[in-house]
Every structure is written in C-alpha cells, then in structure tokens.
Amino acid sequence: MRRHVLLSLLLTLTLLGGLPANAQSPHVEGIQIGLSTDRVSITAGFSGADLTIFGSLEDADPLFARQGRYDVVVVLEGPGRPVMVRRKDRVLGIWMNLESETFENVPVSYSVATTRATQDITDPNSYKRLALGANNIYMRPADTTEAPATIQEFTAALRQRKVANGLYSENPGGVEFLSQNLFRATVRLAPNVPVGTHKARAFLFKNGAFVKETSAQLEIRKSGFEQTIFRFAHNHGPSYGLLCVLLAMATGWLGRMVFKRD
Amino acid sequence: MGIYLPIAEISVNIFVLLAMGAAVGFLSGMFGVGGGFLITPLLIFYNIPPAIAVATGANQVIASSFSGALSHMKRGTLDFKLGGVLLAGGVVGSTFGIYVFALLRSIGQLDLFISLLYVVLLGTVGGLMLFESVNALRATRSGAAPVLKKSGQHNWIHRLPLKMRFRASKLFVSVIPVIGIGMAIGFLSSIMGVGGGFIMVPALIYLLRVPTNVVIGTSLFQIIFTSAYTTLVHASTNYTVDVMLAFLLMVGGVAGAQYGAKAGQKLRGEQLRALLALLVLAVAIRLAIDLFITPANLYSLTTADIG
C-alpha cells in the first residue's frame, strides 16, 4: 500500500521582476519551493510514500527553458545523527563485530530527485563542491586520527548500507517541469523514514552551472496514536512497562475466559 | 495489511505477526512451554532488531504464563512458597542480566551473545531431550517397563545447609540451589527474552526432585513475575518493549495455545518430548548456521546515542 502524500504548492511567481542590474545576463534566476503543510504524519498503515513538492523558477529565460537547459535537483534530507559503523570479522569461525567507526551528524535519510540523470546535469566537481548527492555528503569521523584508508572504507560502507536500507535514494526524472516556470518534484519516503525535522532543498542549474539554492523545513512525525505511545515509552518508561505487563495479564486472563477448557 | 510499530519504528505485516503468535501459541499449548525461546528467534528472523525482539518476547511470555498459571492455581498444582523463593533469586538474576544486556549492546556484541546463548542452551536441552525420549520410545517398543528414578533418592544438593520446607511440593531442601536456579532463569529471561520454562522444568525435576505435577504450575508462576520484572526494567532502561508488537503476538498466542493443548492430548508423552526436542534443535541449528556462514553484509549501522 503506497499512499501519495501531496504536499501541494504555494508559489509566488514574481513574473514581473524589475530589470536586472547584471548587464551580462538579462535574467537573474531564482528558485522557490513551497510546502502547504509543514508536517507529515506516519500512521499505523505507513509503508513508505511519495512526497510531492512544487516549486517555481523566477525570472527564467524563456529560451533556455524551452530548450530544457534548466535543471533542478531536489533533496529531502533527514535529521543528522551520530552513526556507528561496525564491521564483522571472523573469529574462530564465528562472525562477530570487531572494528567500528563513529561518524558525527550523518543525515538519517537523504532522497534526491532530479530532472534527468545526475551526470547530465553538471560535472562531478560541482556536486562535490555543493556536497550534493548521497556520495558527496561529508561524513565527519568522530576519531580523526584513524588511518584515511579505514575512514574511507567505513564511509563507503555507511553509504552503501543507507542505500540498501532505502534511506538514501535517487530518483532521476523525479523533477518534472509542468510549465516553463513551474516544476514538481517527487521524493521517496522510505517505510523506515526517521521522524524529526527534515530539510527540503532545491538546487537550480543553468546550462550545467549552479545558480541558486533554496530550502524549506518539513516535520515528519508519528501520527497521534503512535506518537503518544513512543513519547510515553520514552518519557515514562516504568509506567509504560507496567502498562505492558498489565496488558499481557489481561490478554492472558481474557484468553482463558474465551477458550475455557477446565 | 501493514502496521507501523511505534517502538521498533518499522512497518510489518499484521497477519504475519498474528500467525507467528498463533503458531508459537499452538506449540506452547501442545508442549506446555511458554514459547519465548521460539518467539524471540522468529522475530529476529523477521528482521525485528534483536534488542526489541528480546524485550518484547519477555512481555509476550507474561500473557501465556499467566493464562497457564491460572489453570494450575485452580487445580492446586502451584507451590507459592517455592515459587516465591525462586522469584527472589529471579529478580537478582534479572537485574544483573539487564546490566549485561546494556553493556553488550553498547560494545556491539549483543546480537552475537544472544545467538550464542540460544545455540548453546537450545542445542544442549534439545539434544538431551531427544536422547532421553528416543530411549524411552525404544524401551516401550521393545516392551521393557520404563525405569523410573526413585523420588526419594538424594544427591549432593540435599546436603547443603539452610533447609526449608515446601509443603505443596513435599520437599525439604536447602534454599541455596532454589535461589540459584531462580537467578539463572532471571538472567536468561532478561538476555534472551524467554520465560526459561525449558530450563526451569528439567532443573526442578532432576535437581530438586519436585513432583512433576507441581513443577509446571510453579514454573509458570515464577515466570510471570520474572518476565514482568524483565519487561519493566527493559521498558525503563532500554526503551525496547514494543507494546503493539507484543499485543499482536499475545492475541495470536492465546488463541493458538488452546488448540495446541487439545492436539497435545492426542500424543503420548515420549512422542511429544521427541517432537519438542526436534523443534528446539532445529531453532538451534538455524541460529548456529547464521553464526558461521559469511553474512551478506559485513557492515552494520547503529545510531550512537552519545554524540
């Protein structure tokens, strides 16, 4: 079951912007994205969703737009958390965790949507400069004294695991231009998407060169019931545990009433 | 139909969980065990994080043992005094177990330790049970009368000091081994998410020589409290009890147990024990294989709590 969460649009089209001061280019492009709601709730039936973000270009050059030379990359980045990567090695025939490396402030999730294949939009160096894309996020190791080769190995493993979990994803063609100025981006929310404050960012490229960036915030949280349970469990551990015990006893007792055997 | 587990933070299929609970409930009703030793590995096979599988397994065990203990209480096959002493040991063992659990979790060896404990304990208990029941089956087939151990026989345990009288069990024995067994069960309960019935029952019968009819009721009685205590402590220190997951398992389990008990009455004791032994061994072998084959992913991620 996949639900389509529509986050709808809210755009301010500044079509009649003043004359640009820049003499070289008659157009000073801008980019806007808008979320009508700043909250997405995860309900009991949640098994991943597509999130739609609308946006617009400001002062776009009609000639470039017609030729499809504007590209947009939209990123939905989850909250940053410290992550420990562990590697299993064989000890006496048994596989056990031995080496580990901690990284600080790793985005829990990172989904990208682009107008076309990433390598066609701009060159790898610009991506690196912008720290854009799952392979370019900077992962800061907690222990910087570690050998660079080890850090590299664990960084690669971290990215690979995140991609395998569906938390880091790419959706080429996920951004579509609906008109010359208006675009729609579809980013994937994995079933295990983390709760917290997510950041939606949009990057505008013109002819392969980075022009502008904009961002908006989005709160992903569990819906009423799940959130209540989660919060209760974390804030009132002992009472929550007691409730779990009582629930189990009630279920056992009821079960005996319903299926009386003796 | 999918359902989102609030603590495990993943989406699972509601029917898979109900069926899992029902299947384990059926077996536990049939063999008279709590079923925790089956539910926790099954949850782990179903990709529930081991820490959550263990704590939630302990919670689920309460329901089945409470229901079972009620019927034993009615029949008078429950020794409250013996259960109480076992429990005193259980609380100590459980507290220690939860400390070890948190420690192993922080150094990243929890999953390995849980698997190893399962393999060793299930392998030993399953192997011994299979050996004993196959011998019994052979003996009945060849027509020889089964040799019963005399309950009056004394071993070294009966020479220990601090003796105490347990009337319902017709027992006069030192409290040291009783508390010791309780502690061991409490420790296993908190680390493995099991009630420990599969260890407690043979220990009470063979070590303390408690009459068999009192053993199951008393063991269930103490398991309720040990697993309740384990659930409470896991809930307040590790936040790993998922009430939604536990509830689905309980509902399936309570229903399955009733049918299992009926099916169990149609089988003979030795046959039942041989089947249970095979089941226990199968779980142990499956877990052992996972320890030795090269894992699909050498790397694992955990969100470090301290930044």
Describe the structure.
- The complex is a heterodimer of chains A (262) and B (307).
- With 262 residues, chain A is an alpha+beta fold.
- Chain A folds into 2 domains: 3-222, no CATH class; 224-262, no CATH class.
- In chain A, 26% of the residues lie in helices and 40% in strands.
- In chain A, the strands form 3 sheets. In chain A, strands 3-14-13-5-8-10 form a 6-stranded mixed beta sheet. In chain A, strands 1, 2, 4, 11 and 12 form a 5-stranded mixed beta sheet that branches.
- In chain A, strand 6 (80-91) and strand 7 (94-107) form a beta hairpin.
- Chain A is globular and about 80 Å long.
- The model of chain A is unreliable at 1-23 (pLDDT under 50).
- With 307 residues, chain B is mainly α.
- Chain B has one domain.
- Chain B is built from 10 helices and 5 strands; from the N terminus they run E-E-H-H-H-H-H-E-E-H-H-H-H-H-E.
- Chain B has helices spanning 14-31, 36-45, 50-75, 80-106, 110-142, 175-192, 197-207, 212-238, 243-265, 269-292, and strands at residues 2-5, 10-13, 163-166, 171-174, 299-303.
- Chain B has a two-stranded antiparallel ribbon.
- In chain B, strand 1 (2-5) and strand 2 (10-13) form a beta hairpin.
- In chain B, helix 1 crosses helix 9, helix 3 runs antiparallel to helix 8 and helix 5 (110-142) runs antiparallel to helix 10.
- The two termini of chain B are 37 Å apart.
- Mean pLDDT of chain B is 80; it is low at 148-152.
- The interface between A and B is large, with 67 and 61 residues.
